[in-house]
Amino acid sequence: MAGSSFGTIFKITTWGESHGKGLGVVVDGCPAGLPLDENDIQKFLNRRKPGQSKFTTPRKEDDAVEILSGVFEGKTTGTPISLVVYNQNQKSKDYSEIASYYRPGHADYTFDQKYGFRDYRGGGRSSGRETIGRVAAGAIAVKILNQLGITFLTYTRSIGPISISSQNFDAAQINENPLYMPDADAAENAENYLNACIAEQNSSGGVVECIIQGVPAGLGDPVFEKLNANLAKAVMSIGAVKGFEIGDGFDVAKATGKNNNDAFRIGADGRPVKTTNHAGGILGGMSDGSDIILRAAIKPTPSIAAPQQTVNKDGEEIDVSIKGRHDPIIVPRAVVVVESMAAVTLVDALFTNMSARMDSLEMFYQH
Amino acid sequence: MAGSSFGTIFKITTWGESHGKGLGVVVDGCPAGLPLDENDIQKFLNRRKPGQSKFTTPRKEDDAVEILSGVFEGKTTGTPISLVVYNQNQKSKDYSEIASYYRPGHADYTFDQKYGFRDYRGGGRSSGRETIGRVAAGAIAVKILNQLGITFLTYTRSIGPISISSQNFDAAQINENPLYMPDADAAENAENYLNACIAEQNSSGGVVECIIQGVPAGLGDPVFEKLNANLAKAVMSIGAVKGFEIGDGFDVAKATGKNNNDAFRIGADGRPVKTTNHAGGILGGMSDGSDIILRAAIKPTPSIAAPQQTVNKDGEEIDVSIKGRHDPIIVPRAVVVVESMAAVTLVDALFTNMSARMDSLEMFYQH
Amino acid sequence: MAGSSFGTIFKITTWGESHGKGLGVVVDGCPAGLPLDENDIQKFLNRRKPGQSKFTTPRKEDDAVEILSGVFEGKTTGTPISLVVYNQNQKSKDYSEIASYYRPGHADYTFDQKYGFRDYRGGGRSSGRETIGRVAAGAIAVKILNQLGITFLTYTRSIGPISISSQNFDAAQINENPLYMPDADAAENAENYLNACIAEQNSSGGVVECIIQGVPAGLGDPVFEKLNANLAKAVMSIGAVKGFEIGDGFDVAKATGKNNNDAFRIGADGRPVKTTNHAGGILGGMSDGSDIILRAAIKPTPSIAAPQQTVNKDGEEIDVSIKGRHDPIIVPRAVVVVESMAAVTLVDALFTNMSARMDSLEMFYQH
Amino acid sequence: MAGSSFGTIFKITTWGESHGKGLGVVVDGCPAGLPLDENDIQKFLNRRKPGQSKFTTPRKEDDAVEILSGVFEGKTTGTPISLVVYNQNQKSKDYSEIASYYRPGHADYTFDQKYGFRDYRGGGRSSGRETIGRVAAGAIAVKILNQLGITFLTYTRSIGPISISSQNFDAAQINENPLYMPDADAAENAENYLNACIAEQNSSGGVVECIIQGVPAGLGDPVFEKLNANLAKAVMSIGAVKGFEIGDGFDVAKATGKNNNDAFRIGADGRPVKTTNHAGGILGGMSDGSDIILRAAIKPTPSIAAPQQTVNKDGEEIDVSIKGRHDPIIVPRAVVVVESMAAVTLVDALFTNMSARMDSLEMFYQH
């Protein structure tokens, strides 16, 4: 079935494989009047580009985005915005061998099961390059949200056994190290850990954390269109994500009502405000006005050079070492992808919330 | 926006509040020819009924389900199946006071923010009784899946600090203790823990685990309709769920490629089979033929008798003790809800997968 | 597939068969704060009830509607509104014979082809009683629209060869004759025509026309969610409808640019206004601020007492006379159904239009 | 709202404006294993290209399509197929003047009302070039359907007052005249009629008819996803379409039950077959196995050189003559667009029908 669209009123449709002509996205339902140009989108795409650190693969990828429709005289027209990035440097020869077997941890086997065959070059549709469409769309979503006072802070929270610490937390550090960690010490430790992984032909997992600020209360719809449910779907649709949590997440399982409930007090502006935020900004499936805090658990890069057991298409058991260029860690590249998917979800929630009350409806249609 | 429907080809629409006339669900897209009667559904609803243990509230709820449409001569007709459970014993007087303030941890505040007012009786639309519709639909979904050889094993994995252990795992124990734990020792320890909570006017969180067996490979659609993404949305739409994970879940963050990848071997039937299942049965967003393993982290019941700080509608800070009948734990009641949502998701994935290949399409339409 | 829901943000889900326990609808996405009670809905349902004229069947149908959820203290809460009408007087014995053959012009044959069997009692899911859910939902939709200054004028435009005439047009006549024609002379001629049909054991078709006034400009979304396209789907989903048109409709085929274009002038309020309305209020798929004019062509009632040729389930050719109580005309009963479906479509279009522009988005979220 | 996608399981998303960089479509949900290349699509696009007759505008448009993704080694992979046609010859200077006023019969006014401004060059998103995406997708849909034995015959049925006649009907004539009429005499008369229109600086409307053969019975879902309802939405979403009908269409309004019902007989293969086809192949909203016959009424080209009254953006009443290159008739160009939209709808209906019965579900999942 058509699985490449996400969203209801604000809908993104991505396309493209790692070794096809290009990848892109159609962003449909963007309101008219948003200033937009290629730069806005390129900034986001650059955050996913490898080669920025020794820990992300030195494949040279020219990911220059082009806007093909939907923008006129510097502003969105309200019509679909088609964005494309042409593939420049995808050589097939590095991958020809893997056509014959199923790489462990990859979607080779399941693609074959579902479709009967697959584009084996690189990861095809499940390649990391598939995130290009998501991130290009995310750039637009974040721009819309920024105009409404909603901002994002997304970073690597942990790599393997190394986590950032709250005492050392410094948002300014995020762009100062190639691992996007807001904690210089943790970043250094993590780099050492990753060097060890590389030496062992191994890879590591980690956690991305995303904080969204300035979200108005009431976004999300009981019961199935809860904001946390849609964020979960959005983030878990990203390749390599095996877990998702909001607020205290899995820690709530060990908590009690007394230490998990967020109490209410009256804030400076005379309105209710929570004194803690164990809920992570979502209550009863709707945003409650405090920061939304979410996390994605990302598995280690499946492609490692170390020998692995698998089977080939002739039904033979074989050992393989996946040649080629591998990232020992996906997490830093996933930071902007998590942010993008969260942003796209939030825009849709903002739009679908507008008809919640008769009084706002009447006000809206009165001029 | 309309948030009470879930699914594309197999779609459920729930309705009802805890203190309205009743609750129910319309199940649309159920194939014709499935044997179905009220018993099939009642069995499932009974798994959520309180009063089965001292740890679930002794509110007397008669939840007899009635089939209003969609079944003829004992089989589904392919037309929408409307199910209803009438509310019998919902007295308002226990709740009248809470109309005036926002209970911490509840959706009172966010409902008010979104809609301007709320049905304050009980939890209204966010009451635990809202799960009646989900579970009734789940009964039908599980019956469809069983006919196709797909089965569920769902239980409480942990309560507070007490987890089941793999050595002691015994599925037969699930229905032998009121906490639905497949480990008699863990169940006993958990009961002691909960007694302590009750004594302190407190509540506890926990984790539900669900194993799905017999799932054919290839279900789910890259990139946004991945099976794990839809399962995440389905399960996280359940009230009180703050985290979701597949396979090794958040543990993947600390793993390495060598110990996280599932190797392939040739199985007894000459077909590829995985030697481990860190992936939890889903690879590249599609089922891979092994067991699907998922987990939901559930927060402690927000309604506790202990005093809490909050604010009332007049903007005053107050202390409240929420009177009435409270569960110290939601988790055992959530077991059948998690199973139901997973089942509904899986049915939809089975249906939407049927058009994946030209050859099966041609075979299907050839008689 | 699930085919019983209609709408995106404002979504209705109907259920029920003519001889099941009841029929109903879940209306999801209704804004909170709309005053609503059973009367509002009953008024609409009464417009479809037979027995109001000698031309609609004297089957006694008690169609008292009940609100089961979604309303509190006289206003909608924003949660799904479940409405039910219980079947009172549906005897199976009138229909038992038809289980064995396919009635011409009915869905018996296609239901069998699709599902393998069918509920043969009455029309089952394709019975005229299926419109109960649509009309109940339509009552709510019209109430929302009325609050925003949008009103409907729906009536029978023609029956067989007899059409209303513009010179004789008198809206007040609509409720003065059982055929709902806004032209007393035409109504009289049509009654004579129908008497002739009855005498011949025959039935007649006709056209329903619906005029919607006060619609703001800009509703509808290029390219596939055009307002006329959604109205077409909504109205053509009504049983027995074989044609749909907007404005001059099929007459445009014989027109020329000079006599079909609607010129613009400046209106009394200084804003553009059209001098004619060949377009029927929709231009480029969006409402243009003038009256929306649409028409539905309705075929003759298929169930007639006159002998017809058909086949039975054993593959034999037979002649049948369909016994029982038949309407010689569907059209008057369809008037409120067309209005209801148009209303439901328009509400959805109003809601989905709210996010069209950045400036209104910013204004909406600024308090 | 996002209005540029159509379909549920087989979904097309179009993008592009007449004077942007290009136009295209993403076709998502195409089954894997369908042989496909640019030729397949180009053939369809060529059927819409102007310049093939003196009656379609001599604008030189190079509409060479390119496949950017979704095809590997000559077959579809099941992943989204992105198609693009780059704009080559769209000069803005012909259109600069119209930025200042609202052309009668065009969407200028409604676009402004909805979005606050518009891309005034050519028709922008409502240009006839928008059909490029639809037709490219239609090529793929028709190819899928052909593989399943379903074929299309689409043509111009009438232009202005000139209709084809059944006695003279000759499908072979369709491609022998630039008006795509299956009747050489009617084509000649129509050409004369159009010459007269051109001389008067006028334009004409007409009707497109489409016959679909080989459709299996049972496609479409009561009540809102009826096949005729979805075909109506698909076809009425095409620009300039003001009416849609199935089978006898609006003629049913003047018919009686005796002459409108299609009787059943036993066919050569021992299965029921209808003796007539007033229903146009759809009964109760589902295909009945006979030919599906549908018609679209298309209004005259709004852009005519003759003077017209309108208003400009400064609120002044003015007279305009729309300069530039105009088609006196849209209908022949719309033939392939109607066929494409019908095909896309039919593919989706085929896919969504596969889960209608438990027995076929069980058969499907048994290997």
TrEMBL record, chains A, B, C, D:
GO terms for cellular component: cytosol. It comes from the Bacteria. Pathway: Metabolic intermediate biosynthesis; chorismate biosynthesis; chorismate from D-erythrose 4-phosphate and phosphoenolpyruvate: step 7/7. It catalyses: 5-O-(1-carboxyvinyl)-3-phosphoshikimate = chorismate + phosphate. GO terms for molecular function: chorismate synthase activity; FMN binding. Its cofactor is FMNH2. Its EC number is 4.2.3.5. NADP(+) binds at R48, K54. SUPFAM superfamilies: Chorismate synthase, AroC. Reduced FMN (FMNH(2)). It is an enzyme of class 4 (lyase). CDD domains: Chorismate_synthase (cd07304). Keywords: Amino-acid biosynthesis, Aromatic amino acid biosynthesis, FAD, Flavoprotein, FMN, Lyase, NADP. Belongs to the chorismate synthase family. Homotetramer. NCBIfam families: aroC, PRK05382.1. This is Chorismate synthase. It comes from Roseburia intestinalis.
